[in-house]
Amino acid sequence: MRQSQLLMPTLREVPSEAEAASHQLMLRAGLIRQLAAGIYTYLPLGRRVLRKLEQIVREEMDRAGAQEILMPAMQPAELWQQSGRYGEYGPELIRLRDRHEREFALGPTHEEVITALVRDEVSSYRQLPVMLYQIQTKFRDEKRPRYGLLRGREFLMKDAYSFDEDWEGLHRSYKSMYEAYNRIFTRCGLYYRAVEADAGSIGGEGGTHEFMALADIGEDTIASCDSCDYAANLEKAEYGTELAAHYEQGQKQDELERLHTPAIRKIEQLVQALGVSADLLMKTLIYVADGSPIAVVVRGDHEVNEIKVKNMLSAASLELADQETTERITGAPVGFAGPVGLSIPILADFAVMALEAGIAGANEKDYHLGNVKPGVHLTNAQVGDYRNAAAGDKCPRCGQGRLTFHRGIEVGHVFKLGTKYSEALNARFLTAAGIEQPLIMGCYGIGVSRLLSAVLEQHSDSNGIVWPESIAPYRVHVVPVSSKDQVQMDLAMHIAARLSDAGIETLLDDRDERPGVKFKDSDLIGIPIRIVVGKHAAEGIVELKRRNETQVQAIGLEEAISIAS
Ligand code: ATP
Ligand code: MG
Ligand code: MG
Ligand code: MG
User: Fold this and answer.
1) Separation of CA 142 and ligand 2 centre (Å)
2) Mind giving me the DSSP string for 445-508?
3) Which of 152, 187, 427, 472 could be joined to 38 by an S-S link, Cβ 3.0–4.6 Å?
């Protein structure tokens, strides 16, 4: 490919809207451009990398025995009503109507569609197990799309679903997916950990794992043991028992009072200051203690709650409704879901009960911390301390090793679903004994576009991207120092042609640019091998440099071609 013809708009300046390193690099290297918040176009380089990732995922899915299909993004609302998720999924689900006023959703995930498909096409144990997957665009109206492709509203996901006769079968399917995931992330050059995630109501040992790319920008915190294989999302991590014991030994009363009094006072103030009903406050309650917000949320529409929370805060001029605070609210340390219609003092009690129930969390579904023991202090700052304090704690699994903490990006998720969807959508099969039973399901997701960002969070230096070879948009970058020099250009074109003929993806920088510009761009786009054709072109000598090394080799062109091939 000739660079003069490639749509690769590189940027010198770091775009101000991009916070995450990967987002900055993708904009600067001309991989993506934003169309709307969380919605991106992939330019040629970005598209090439995405295809490489897709291909790795595809090969490993096929190797694990999964079959590729492609399901529609547009899904009838009835399916979601049948599974019970139409209401439950909340505002992340993008809903629309067709010209006949029939309701549809844009798929954020495909459990409903696939269960309906398999219900209609699979009826006997003889057809089991079956594992299907797709690589497809998903839609989620994320509350805070950000960090470029890390949290998009339209993004590429690989989603796989397994259908088995029994739980043993599911364990096997799950294991083969788990192993495929390890191969995928390893092949992509990702540093990651598979961690135990919150099993929720599904339960069971190893009922769900998340694959976490290790990166500071990650939104999850994972605890891992330095001695055994224990690694868990903070939601699942069990620690803090010391504080719990402390609390139980007589601290409880103090703690209750400490919480109660300011909570009630604050609520009363808010009712007055905002002129809202106590009822509304009961739905969305902010309790400010020690300068940190604590949200107590009543079961229901979490998104609506957050909006109200923000409005209430700004209305009250508490100067808390800035982004940082909104973040803190979303990750607020106490969440409690309970019934509506209670008195304010009882609501304040909820904060305490939340502690006792071991739920410290947020006013957003799935953001709660589980298994938090009573006695954990409640403010954000304190939760922060608590997390730090827990580093170095004994491992809850082996009791020998110490826990360390990392930030992680969830790039993959495997989940034993059981019969949740097959029951709801009546997907049954006949066993060998002729008995009708619901299919036992598993689901397995990888955020393919998120994976691209995650790799970039880990593979760059101050000059730009350093692609792992497996997913680089091109393998070789041939750079003639001066495209006006015919000898240099001829040799560069010769090398590029030889490589291309050998099936090596090669980019030739034939632009009429200053050498400095060419080298800067070359470093920025991070192609693994660079062959520079300069003043020794006439003698057939070129310079070869790998992007991840500093050393430059002056070698003959045949040797360069053979190294690059
Ligand atoms: P998160 O906790 O980051 O919101 P999730 O748990 O909601 O992710 P899943 O429903 O498990 O996501 O979806 C499977 C995979 O899809 C995730 O592991 C992640 O890699 C990817 N993914 C989810 N949401 C997004 C998004 N908004 N943008 C890009 N990738 C995403
Ligand atoms: Mg999510
Ligand atoms: Mg998640
Ligand atoms: Mg997940």
Assistant:
1) 7
2) EEEHHHHHHHHHHHSEETTEE---GGG-S-SEEEEES-TT-HHHHHHHHHHHHHHHHTT--EEE
3) 152
- Cβ of 151 closer than 6 Å to ligand 1, yes or no, is yes
**Helical axes 557-564 vs 486-501, angle rounded to 10°:** 40
Q: What is the pLDDT of residue 279?
A: 43
Q: Could you tell me what percent of the chain has a pLDDT over 90?
A: 61
Structure tokens, 225: 């043991």
Which residue CA neighbors atom 5 of ligand 1 most closely? Answer: 410
For residue 175, name the pLDDT band (cuts at 50, 70, 90).
very high
Structure token digits, residue 137: 């665009």
The residue whose CB lies within 8 Å of the most ligand 1 atoms, and thus the one to mutate among 144, 177, 217, 450, is 450
Cα-to-centroid distance, 248 and ligand 2 (Å): 35
Nearest ligand to the C-alpha atom of residue 450? 1
Q: Which long-range contacts (CB under 8 A, 24 or more apart) does 33-41 make?
A: 36/153, 37/145, 37/153, 38/142, 38/145, 38/146, 38/151, 38/152, 38/153, 38/154, 38/155, 39/145, 39/152, 39/153, 39/154, 40/148, 40/149, 40/152, 40/154
Ligand 1: does its nearest atom lie under 6 Å from the Cβ of 157?
A: yes
pLDDT digits (tens, 9 = 90+) for 280-295: 443 334 332 222 333 3
Q: Does the Cβ of 109 fall within 6 Å of ligand 1?
A: yes
Query: Which is higher by pLDDT, 313 or 548?
Result: 548
Look up tokens 């719990």; give the residue: 244
pLDDT tens-digit map of 32-47: 999 999 999 999 999 9
Cα 341 to ligand 2 centre (Å): 29
